[in-house]
Amino acid sequence: MATVFESLDDTVLRAYLFWVAVLTAKMLLMSPLTSLTRVRKMAFANPEDSGAVSRKLKPKLDDPDVERVRRAHLNDLENILPFFVIGFLYLLTNPAPSLAVNLFRLVAASRIVHTLVYAVVVIPQPARFLAFMGAMVPTVYMTVTTILHFL
Amino acid sequence: MATVFESLDDTVLRAYLFWVAVLTAKMLLMSPLTSLTRVRKMAFANPEDSGAVSRKLKPKLDDPDVERVRRAHLNDLENILPFFVIGFLYLLTNPAPSLAVNLFRLVAASRIVHTLVYAVVVIPQPARFLAFMGAMVPTVYMTVTTILHFL
Amino acid sequence: MATVFESLDDTVLRAYLFWVAVLTAKMLLMSPLTSLTRVRKMAFANPEDSGAVSRKLKPKLDDPDVERVRRAHLNDLENILPFFVIGFLYLLTNPAPSLAVNLFRLVAASRIVHTLVYAVVVIPQPARFLAFMGAMVPTVYMTVTTILHFL
Q: Chains that contact A by 3+ CB pairs under 8 Å?
């Protein structure tokens, strides 16, 4: 068995697993949010989708509300998925448990707020910028810590 | 060693690893499928790509067939990658082995069918909707199970 | 404890963890690169972003330089994230350590070059094609090896 796994702290690992599952749930909700927005705005991406509603309806790929939700979803892929990976690698660097748990909480809360102010109720900047940074800064910290640890 | 890993069942883990590798292969095939469609429709995204074919050819970003394959690929990122993560976390909740293995099979089969009816041979709805749900419902079930387990 | 983890080689695992962290850092840099390009070209995606600069500025979704960086970022999600998963699974197939470490190095170097020639300094084809293949070919090899191992 690889020795890097030996230092894994059970409490911190459970916190990681919990927050990863919560953020996965948040990400999965973006699909029905996109679908609901497509129905509300009657803006479907494919002819077989718009055609299922009405033969006269044409696909529409530039609805601003639908594209906003899609950008929020893509932003999740760009930030949450790398966090899932680097969050676990960071655990293998033997971090202080309370620091690690609080970083996971900060990332999770920030990404939930990011979705709310981006795709649910649009709030003027710098709301989205701060929510983005609340997840980006701890993720960068974990990444740099991991690189230096396994150098 | 963290105790959460102790309950990991070898048979279920091997089933997880196999289906994850199969779905990775499926996802990787989306890149050559996009490239082939770009060549077939002569719709390249970058001037250095279209220019390599003919100096007169301009980039084209709105070809419906290319965009369809790209949407199918993005849909894979949105659904298969979170499944990779939550599928493993779900294994740590000590599930019934036969249930877990069948959920993995259902997700994998559904996502393969999703690609076929979306990007290879377009089949009228609700084909794509059902294939999408065949993966989404078990993924949501695993996510909720994991959240409740590590609460 | 699952027996599949027993064969994990510590040296190879550390190489994997290091290169995954490096590629995560590379991916995270795509967000500020997009933001910088948006500011340089004054092409913001959302009215609350352009409005924060000037009330007269309208959102702009088709700037070629911004879209190029976004395509490079999406290409990372499509290729680097599956590599993170399959790279670890490949380690569980008990590969020759030197082969595994060199495959990781090849993927990492190729993806860094891919970003440079795609989104930083545009270099004519086949530069981007070769960089893409330098990561795709080893990733496919690892995927096929993993499928056959856990069949």
A: B, C
